[in-house]
Design goal:
Helix 1 packs across helix 7 and helix 7 packs antiparallel against helix 8. The strands form 2 sheets. A 9-stranded mixed beta sheet has the order 5-4-1-8-9-10-11-12-13, with helices on both faces. It has a 4-stranded mixed beta sheet with strand order 3-2-6-7. The model has no long low-confidence stretch (mean pLDDT 93). The chain is built from 8 helices and 13 strands. The longest helix is centred in the last third of the chain and has 15 residues. Strand 2 and strand 3 form a beta hairpin.
Length: 287
């Protein structure tokens, strides 16, 4: 998909709060937007933060990174988002605070004239009515090429609602356990992916598998797989999926073939897990 069109990322900006007391910038859409900015794709990131210290930090960090903040709303009534993260069996467990600013992304404050072309969103951002309605209105635009990043975080999802977003998508990315949770669960991964892919009439279905790598089913029904070629010391896995997604989107926009996109996305995810947190503030990290 060679594209010079605009790129929009819609969703949560928040802080990942670790048991050590460390607070790290996060939120899957924020992480994806941050990476894509460093990769030269200059996304318009739509979100909402509180008029508080953490919100000011997000705005300041985005500005320092060269990202536009014109689509970041500020909320005087709701706090900037946060999620408490603990690690169990080398996997992150998330506990999201309720009624964060990003739950209230307001359609009337969005520069809708700047939205066209490639549009990314997750499923978590639609957990509350206001942000859900905003996303609903934005994605009614039939000219958008929609990439849905499935994020099933209990208790903040319902299968019927997730299915609705999948029906609008050209590309869907999720992990293997999420594929099963959405009802595509047999003894054969290829069969499960085929059922999901054809059910939602997708261009590509992308399934990440942790240390096993990732697999993509394309429009011709062909499967493409990649596995990590090596693994450095893992510091934390919180940002692996977001890093993979960002590089995959970068490949779609650049017109790479699936094999090249998969390999580079997997390699980038492997790099990100060698550091604490989901993003890097070092521009050299992206070279």
């Amino acid at each position: 998909m060679k594209s010079s069109s605009k790129l929009t990322i819609f969703g949560e900006a928040l802080f990942d709060c670790f048991p050590t007391g460390e607070n790290v910038l996060g939120g899957a859409p924020f992480n994806v937007a941050w990476h894509l900015q460093a990769l030269g794709d200059y996304p318009l990131f739509i979100s909402r933060v509180g008029k508080d210290e953490l919100g000011d930090i997000i705005l300041s960090e985005m500005t320092s990174w060269g990202m536009t903040t014109k689509a970041i709303q500020q909320d005087s009534e709701h706090q900037t988002g946060r999620v408490d993260i603990r690690i169990e069996n080398d996997e992150p467990i998330y506990t999201f605070a309720e009624d964060n600013a990003w739950d209230f992304i307001d359609l009337s404050e969005i520069p809708t004239q700047d939205i066209s072309g490639f549009f990314y969103h997750g499923t978590l951002v639609a957990r509350r009515d206001i942000a859900n309605r905003t996303l609903e209105k934005l994605t009614e635009n039939p000219s958008l090429d929609i990439f849905v990043d499935v994020n099933l975080r209990s208790p903040w999802w319902q299968k019927e609602a997730v299915y609705h977003w999948l029906e609008q998508a050209r590309w869907v990315k999720l992990n293997e356990s999420e594929l099963y949770e959405l009802g595509f669960h047999s003894a054969d991964l290829h069969q499960d992916m085929t059922r999901m892919h054809t059910h939602f009439h997708l261009d590509q279905l992308i399934v990440t598998r942790g240390e096993k790598g990732a697999i993509v089913r394309d429009t011709d029904g062909v499967f493409h797989q990649v596995a990590p070629s090596y693994q450095e010391q893992v510091v934390d896995t919180v940002g692996a999926g977001d890093a993979f997604t960002a590089m995959y989107i970068h490949g779609l926009l650049a017109g790479w073939d699936i094999e090249e996109t998969l390999e580079k996305a997997q390699a980038f995810a492997c790099r990100v897990v060698t550091q604490r947190g989901a993003i890097s503030k070092d521009p050299d990290f992206y070279k």
